[in-house]
Amino acid sequence: MINILKTRILKGVVTRNIEPEVIGQIESSGSELKSLILKKFGRSLHIREVDTGSCGACESEIISANNPIYDLQRFGINFVASPRHADCLLVTGPVSKNMFIALKKTYEAMPEPKFVITCGDCALNGGLFKDSYYVEGAVKDILPVALHISGCPPSPLVIIQTLLMFLRKKE
Amino acid sequence: MAISEIVTRIKKVLPDFKVLSICQSYADEIALKVRAQDFKDTCITLHKILPSPVMMLFACDARKERGSFAINCVFVDFKKNQWVIVGMDIPQENPSFDTLAKSMHSASLFEREIWEMFGIEPKDNPDSRRLRLHDEVWPKGNYPLRKDFKAIQAEKLSDYKFSRVEGEGIFEVPVGPVHAGIIGPGHFRFSVAGEPIINLELRLGFTHRGVEKLFEGKLYTDAVGLSECVSGDSSFAHSLAYVLAAEKISGIMIPAQADILRAIFLELERMYNHVNDIGGIAMDVGFSFLHAYASIIKETILQLNENLSGNRYLRKINVVGGVTQAIDETKKELLLDFLKRIKFDFSELVKILNSSVSFMDRVDTTGVLRRKTAEDLGVVGLVARASGIPTDLRKYFPGVYNQAKFKMMIQESGDVLARLRVRISEFEESCRLIEEFAARLNQDDKLRTEVKLKVGSALGYTEGWRGPVLYWLETSPAGLIERCKIVDSSFLNWQGLSFAVLGNIIPDFPLCNKSFNLSYSGNDL
Lengths: 171, 525
What we know:
CATH class of chain A: Alpha Beta
Strand order of the largest sheet of chain A: 2-1-3-4-5
CATH superfamily of the largest domain in chain B: Cytochrome-c3 Hydrogenase, chain B
Strand content of chain A: 5-15%
CATH architecture of the largest domain in chain B: Orthogonal Bundle
Helix content of chain B: 40-55%
Strand order of the largest sheet of chain B: 1-2-5-4-3
Helix content of chain A: 40-55%
Oligomer: heterodimer
Mean pLDDT of chain A: 86
Strand content of chain B: 15-25%
């Protein structure tokens, strides 16, 4: 115990700060996001992510948005393990035939009220893969989509800012 | 010399061996054409004498040109630094060939792939279930990679048969395709007796998007962007393997500067993924502080990527003929400055890891993949190196890595700890390599050369962070892609995972899985 305390005091803060202007952007968007979520969702927004055939870059950026630098959680956004716990479904990928049923079932498993966000260019209209024999096409033709976050992949900051703009509009 | 030598070596084992044609279009590639009845024996002989697993086995639809299907099997010869491609033609009526899988397990998945995509039957293959075109959504008799495939013909749908383990007290745990984390989709079916796993069956293919078909008909200078989206975390390795194949076909030499820049970006990709996996392994034993620390390092490298190239995932850098981004003096300084910080952070991270007894206890002897099993399955890349197999394309093929005295990292024990240690030492080696490469940058050199479209076929290959990424490309005289076969190392390594978890408990599965960290989209294509 004493050892742990000693290391803790000697080490101080180990996290690195990135460029101040980026930090500023995250902080200002984030705090507004937090107050909007507090008002609209009664404290927090819970998101369930589903990959319907993405290349993995969107997932990587969504995970990055949860790292200690962006730390979406402190603004009231949690990524949850089950659709039963979610307010929102975040869909990535061009919807391959194999994921069509899984996507619909995940949506049906969510309690009302619920909404859908698509993330990345593939989820908007199939992107590079839209002419494929194995792609169902845009998520919006399958589920009611409230918001699209564009990019290939969208960076964590873009994810935060797009969410913020969306919630602002809903005010 | 080298051409006839390979035939002599085969003839020692197969006295009646006849080769229809043999050519060496590129220094690192020998193509043998054999009669259909000799194909199986030739492949098995090469598999034994080189020795090499089946690195690629794929079909091409040449019915329009030659009235036949072609099948090619690719082996790697590390001693001679070259690839050996064995090919045969098979008639288009009721196409079939004798299975290789009974003698070389590494051919098994490839044969199932040929069967579902081309309708060419691997006779006597013990497993003829489909990999990617799931029976529940894709009717029988539709072969999408045939050239004359237009749209699905309605036929009956069927079901997938999982292999069953039966007996008293055995139960099945199905997981997926949608998992708890933010991760790709796949279905895992565990059969357990009490706690230990006695069988794990993987059913993948959920992210199948028909990538290989999408390449066809595109101008080969225009398809780099598609190769970047095959597997997002290996964007650079995939586009590199693709452009290398295209450059071989075009017959061009790229400027030395571009070669070095590519190596730098390839190592940066390796670094952010390795540190991400080290953090992931820590997370899966509940060591969240270390995970947070590792994700800061990953974010630092992603930001470095963006500063250097304008893209966090190193996209839009490779083009056929060279690269689009230079690292000038200011960027070089930035790179070295970032590297210094990254190295310091990483050494701290390793110190914390090594001093945590409970962490070491969890990873030591967990998820062992024995060398013999790995060899039989044809496992490649990082996972193979952790099981004691010396295999790394950077080591065996000449190029900038040879000049930088690249050191291959190998561990013997094949457990999660071994894979972790390979990652740690490769990360450190990557730092050294980047510094070495950065010192060789020559600012006066050009970044790209002119490309002339040509007809031909070639194999592009590179050692991505998971292992080899292979692209076999065939083009038409107009420069359009006829066939593009992709093999990501995940395709061969997923089977390794289902053997590594045997005897472990289900709660350790995420840990084993993370130590492999294979790509869903790279496997499913």
